[in-house]
Amino acid sequence: MIELKDIVVQFGDFTALHNIDVHVKEGEFFTFLGPSGCGKTTTLRAITGFVEPAQGSVHVAGRDITRVPIEERNIAIVFQSYALFPTMTVYDNIAFGLKIRRLKKDEIDRKVRAIAQKLDLSDEQLKKAVSQLSGGQQQRVAIARSLVNDPDIICMDEPLSNLDAKLRVQLRNELKDMQKNFGITSIYVTHDQEEALTLSDRIAVFNKGYIEQIGTPNEVYNRSATEFVCNFIGDINRLEPPLVEALRAKGLALDPAHTHYLRLERLSLGEESALADLILPGVVESREYYGLYIKYSIRLDSQLIRAIEKNDGVHIHEPGEQINVGIMARDLMRYDAQGKAVSA
Amino acid sequence: MTTLRDRAQKPAGLRPGVLLKLFGVGFFVYLFFGFMLLPTLNTLTQIFTAQNPTTGATDPWAVIRFFLAGSMSKYLWNSVKLAVLLVITVNVVGVSLVLLTEYFDIKGANILRMGYMTTLIYGGIALGTGYLFLYDSNGIITTLLVNAFPGMNPNWFSGFRAVLFTMTFAVTSNHMLFLRNAIRGIDYNTVEAARNLGAGPLRVLWKVVFPTLLPTMFSLTIMTFITGLCAMSAPVLLGYDSINPEIVRLAGSSVADEAFPQARAALLSVILALFTIGLLTILSAYEKRGHYLSVSKTKARLVKQKIHNPVANVLAHIYAYVLFVVYMTPVVMIVIFSFQTHGAIQMKTLDFSNWTLVNYVGQQDFSYLTSRGVHRVREGAISGVFSNEATLGGIRTSFILSALAAAAACVIVVVACNYIFKRNKKGKLRKSGAVLEYSLLFPWLLPTILICYSYRIYFNSNDIWYVANQNLYYMQNVRLLIIIAYMVVKLPFSLRMIKASFYAIDTELEDAARSLGAGGLTTFLRVKLPIILPSVLAVFALNFNALFTEYDMSATFASSYGTSYAMVLQSMTREEGLYGYNVNATGRRNASTVFIMLVSGLILYLVYGIGARDLAERLARRDKWRKRWDKMKGPFVRRKAPMVKEQPNLVDIEDVVGDFVGAMR
C-alpha cells in the first residue's frame, strides 16, 4: 500500500532521515515510534507531502507520489494540535474538505451527519464552535474531518498527547476500534511505547533518523533487534559485568563481551523463583506501590536490580527482607559491541 | 477504497499563479520605488541643488551654510527643547496615572481611569481646540482665573508653555495603554516575595516593579521624543516655532519672498528623518537585548497596594483627583458648551435656561451692529456641524480619503503578509519575503511630514512618467495623492499589527487545509483570512480613526481640494463673528469635538468590544438573542413545525438582528 524507498530528508546541513525503507500493508495500523527528534514526524510529513525528500520516493498503491501536491494525495492527517479551524463550527470543520471537492449541499450534509453519528458527535455539538468542545470531542472532530473525505490513508501525529491519562486510554481503544471498522490504512506517530504496543499491527522504531527495527509489538518487545530498541521499549535491567560473572560462575553460558538485559517482569521473586534456571539471594532495598503491581529494588550481589510482581495483596515484601530472585536463561537479551541482537 | 487522484500536471509557463506573482512583484516594486524612495531622494537632492538667489548658479552647500549661520537652528532647537521636556513631563504624569489607577489603592480608581483615558477618544487638533476653548485669553478657565487674580496675564496660554501643557496631557494615552498592560502583567508573587524578604513598599516599587516596566518605559520615551520633535497641530494652534510648522510654511513660500525656501524645508525634513532613524535604531537595539520575562509557572494577579502613611495617602488622593479634573474639565466643558447658544459661548457663561442643538444641526439668523451703528441681519449665519457646508465638506473629504487609504493599507499588508509567511520547500521563510517586509517598514524611518512634503514637491510636475505624466498635486488629483500618502504612512503600523496576527496562526491549520484538498488561495481565503479578519478590521478601524482627524499631513498638502476635517476645525479657531462671518465657530468646534469623541469611542468599542469576540462567544450571544426573540414573539407567532433537516450553515435574519442588537448593547 505505502512504500518508502531509500528516503533521505535534509534540513540544510542536517540529515533528518537516512535511507528510510518502509512498506506498510493495506489496512494495517502501522506506528512510527521513537524519542523526540528521531525523524518519525518527518517521515510522516514526507508521506503527506509537507516535506520533500532529497532522495528516494514515496509510493502509494504502486504510484509514485513523491512530487504530487499535498492537496492531491488524498491522505488525511490528524494533527497533534488537531488543527481544527477556530473560525468554523464543528459542522463546517467536518464539511471543509467536501466543500473543496464541490459536492452538493445535500450530499455534504448526509456525509457529515453520517460520520458524526459514527464518531458519537451529536447534532447539537455540530452547531458548536470547536472551542466549546472538550479535548476528547475535539479529537473526534479532527478524525471525522479526516475520514469524511474517504481518504486512502490516515496519518495521525501524536493525536492523544494533549489529553489526560484516563481519556488517553479510553480514546486509544476507540481509535483501534475505529480503524478496524473503517479498515483504513493508518500511520500513527508516537513517542509513547505503551500506545504503540497496544494499538499497532506493526511498529517501526526510529533513532537519529534511522529505523532500528520494524516488527510486531511482540517482536519489538521480546526480540528487540538492537540495544537501543531494547532500552527504549519497556523498563529493563542492564546486567553489570560483576553480576554477569556471578551468573557465569553459577553455570549460565554468558559471553562477557556481550551486553545483557533482563526485563523486570521476567524475574521471579520468593516462592515463584523455585522453577527458575538460577536462583540468587537478594535483599529488598525499596518498594514502589503501583496498585496493579509492585516494583522492587533488590540488591543482588554487587548490583541493584528492579523487579515487578503482580499485587496479590498477600505477598508484599518489606524493605530489608531477604528474598530469592529467579532468572530464566531464555529471558536474557544479548547484544554485541555494535548493539545488534545476538541469539543465545 | 478510493484511488489516488492523478491529476495531469499543468504545463509550465505563464500559468495564472505565475502571472499573479509577477503582478504582485511589479506592484510592490512600483509602490516602493515610486512612492517611497524616489520622492524622498528628490527631497534629499533638493538640498544640494539650491540656486544662489543672486547669481542663479547651483550652490550645493548654500542651504547647509544657511543652516550653520543660525537662522534655521531656532526651529530645530525649539523642537528638541519641546521633545526633551515632553519626555520628562509625559513620563512623570503618565507613570503616576498608571500607578494611581493600577498599583496603589486609590478610592474611585475606576472613575479616575475613565477620566485619564479620555485622550484615547479625542486628541490632536480636537484636543488642542478644546484646550484653547478653556485656557486662551478669552477661555473659560482663564477668564475665571483673571477675575480671581486680576494681576494674572490673560495670555498665559500661548507659545512653548501652552504647547508643553497640552501635549503633556495628550500624549499620556500611550502610557495608559502600554504601561498599564505592563504593570498588569507583573507577577504579584514577586512583590510578595520581596515583602517577605523584608523590603518596604517604596523599595519594592523601586527595585521590583520599576525594573520590569523599564523596557516599556524606554519605548514610550523614544516614541514621546519623536512625537515632540514632530509636533504639528499644537504648535500651529498655540503659536510655537518648531520644525514642522516651519516646513509647511516654507513649502508654501516662494523664492521671491525668501532664500531657497523649498531647499530649507527639505533640509529640515531630512534632519527630522535623521533624528527618527537614530532614535528608532536605538530602540531596536534596546529591544534586541531582550526584556525581563516572568519565569513564573503560575502568575498571580497584582493586588493593589495600600498607602499606609495617612499623609502620603491623602496627598496621593489629592494628586489623583487634581489630574482627573485636568483631564475631565475640557471634555465636560466642551460637551456642555456644544449645547449652548452662540451668546452663552461668547460670554463664556453657562445659560441653564437655554439649551440648543444648533451647533449640531440647523441654522439661525445672526443680527449684529456694524461699526456705523447699523443693525444688520445675516440669514442662516449660525449653523451646525451637519448643516454647515464647509464643515460637512471637511467631514466628507476626511471620511472618504481616510476610509479608502485605511482599506488600501490593510489590503496591501494582508497580501504582503501572506507572502512573507510562505515557506519554501525547505520549510524556511523566503528571503524575498524579508525584503518585502523591510520595504513596507521603510516609511517608519521617515517623519510623515517628510513624506507629504516630498509628495507635494515631487508630484507637482507633469514629468513623472510612472503616474502617466499627470500632475498629482493639481486640483482634484491632490485627493489621490493624499490617499496614497495616508496609505503609505499607515503601512508600517498595519504591517506590525497584522503580521502579529499572522504569527498567531497555527501552521498546522494550513497543513490541515492543504491535506483536505484546499489549494493556496482557498486556504488563504477560507482558513487564514477568517482568523486574521478581526485584527485586520481592528487595524482598519484604528487607521481610519487616526486619519479621520489627522491635521499634519493635510496641512502639509495645503490644498483647497483636500481640505480635511481637522483643517476645518483649525480654521474655526480664527476670529469669529466679524461682519457676521464665521459665526458660532466655537460652538461648531465643540460639537465637532463631541462628534469626533463619539466616532472614536464607537470605533474603540467595535475593535476592543465586538472585534475581540471569538466564534464561541458570538454563537453564545446569538443563542441568547434568539431565545429572547422567541420569547418576545411568544404568543403572537404560531410555533413553526420542526424542520426535517437542520441547516447549520444558513444565517437567518434573526441571527443578524440578534448580533446587531447584541452589539449595540
Brief rundown of the structure:
The complex is a heterodimer of chains A (344) and B (665). With 344 residues, chain A is an alpha+beta fold.
What does this structure look like?
The complex is a heterodimer of chains A (344) and B (665). In chain A, strand 7, helix 6 and strand 8 form a beta-alpha-beta unit. In chain A, strands 6-7-8-3-9-10 form a six-stranded mixed beta sheet, sandwiched between helices. Chain A has a five-stranded antiparallel beta sheet with strand order 13-17-14-15-16, covered by helices on one side. In chain A, strands 2-1-4-5 form a four-stranded antiparallel beta sheet, with helices on one face. In chain A, helix 2 crosses helix 3 (105-118) and helix 2 (90-100) packs parallel to helix 5. The mean pLDDT of chain A is 90. Chain A has helices at 40-48, 90-100, 105-118, 123-126, 135-147, 165-182, 193-199, 217-222, 227-232, 241-249, and strands at 2-11, 14-24, 29-33, 55-60, 63-64, 75-78, 153-157, 185-190, 202-207, 210-215, 236-239, 259-263, 268-269, 278-289, 293-300, 303-310, 322-327, 333-335, 341-342. The longest helix of chain A is centred in the middle third of the chain and has 18 residues, at 165-182. Chain A has two domains: 2-232, 3-Layer(aba) Sandwich (Rossmann fold); 236-342, Nucleic acid-binding proteins (OB fold (Dihydrolipoamide Acetyltransferase, E2P), Beta Barrel). With 344 residues, chain A is α+β, with helices and mostly antiparallel strands. With 665 residues, chain B is mostly helical. Chain B folds into three domains: 17-43 and 384-571, Orthogonal Bundle (MetI-like fold); 65-337, MetI-like fold; 619-664, no CATH class. Helix content of chain B is 65%, strand content 2%. Chain B contains 26 helices and two strands. Chain B has helices spanning 16-48, 62-68, 73-103, 109-116, 124-135, 140-148, 159-171, 173-184, 188-196, 201-229, 233-238, 243-251, 261-288, 310-337, 342-347, 389-420, 431-441, 448-458, 477-503, 507-515, 520-548, 552-557, 565-571, 585-610, 615-633, 653-664, and strands at 363-369, 375-383. In chain B, helix 3 packs across helix 8 and helix 25 packs across helix 26. The longest helix of chain B has 33 residues, at 16-48. At the A-B interface, strand 6 and helix 2 of A face helix 20, helix 21 and helix 25 of B.
